[in-house]
Specification:
mainly alpha
């Protein structure tokens, strides 16, 4: 079910919606912010102890 999200057509549609909603000037800033957030999340995930759910 998840593999359907990563096919080209849904990605093109999502990109087109994002482009019309935010505009071409704002997209690089949003991408940069998203990249920084993912990087911070990964750094914090490596620093914190693993939590194991039973």
């Amino acid at each position: 079910m998840i593999e359907g999200i990563f096919q080209p057509m849904p990605l093109i549609i999502i990109l087109a919606i994002a482009l019309t909603f935010f505009g071409p000037g704002k997209l690089p800033e949003l991408g940069s912010s998203l990249g920084k957030a993912i990087k911070e999340f990964n750094i914090l995930g490596k620093k914190s102890p693993s939590v194991r759910l039973a």
